[in-house]
Specification:
Blueprint (H helix, E strand, L loop, with lengths): L2 H14 L4 H8 L3 H8 L7 H11 L3 H6 L4 H10 L4 H20 L1
Length: 105
């Protein structure tokens, strides 16, 4: 696992889901410049930032680090690909609420 490979996978996945670098950086809470440097292999990631990026991209850390795609993520992403950004935000909010209800029990 090299910074170059990790950065390349992040960039490819981000572009595949049609998310801009600015959108991803904003979701993760990092600067666009730092994300650019990560995507170009110039900077590495902390475990915390890796986790935040994987959540923002809805992909596994395994995929980012090792290039191993998780079948469940592929299925979810193929289904979610049918929705626009506004619909995805609503779906995300619904899932978050379901998760919170489950935690409360």
């Amino acid at each position: 696992m090299s910074n170059i490979e990790v950065g390349k996978r992040i960039k490819e996945f981000r572009e595949e889901i049609k998310m801009t670098r600015e959108e991803l950086a904003d979701k993760v809470g990092i600067s666009t410049k730092f994300l650019y440097e990560v995507e170009n292999g110039k900077k590495g990631l902390s475990a915390e930032t890796l986790l935040k990026i994987s959540k923002a991209l809805s992909c596994s850390c395994d995929y980012i680090l090792l290039g191993k795609k998780n079948e469940n993520y592929e299925i979810i992403n193929s289904v979610l690909g049918n929705f626009n950004k506004k619909q995805l935000r609503y779906i995300g909010e619904i899932l978050r609420l379901i998760y919170e209800i489950g935690k409360a029990k």
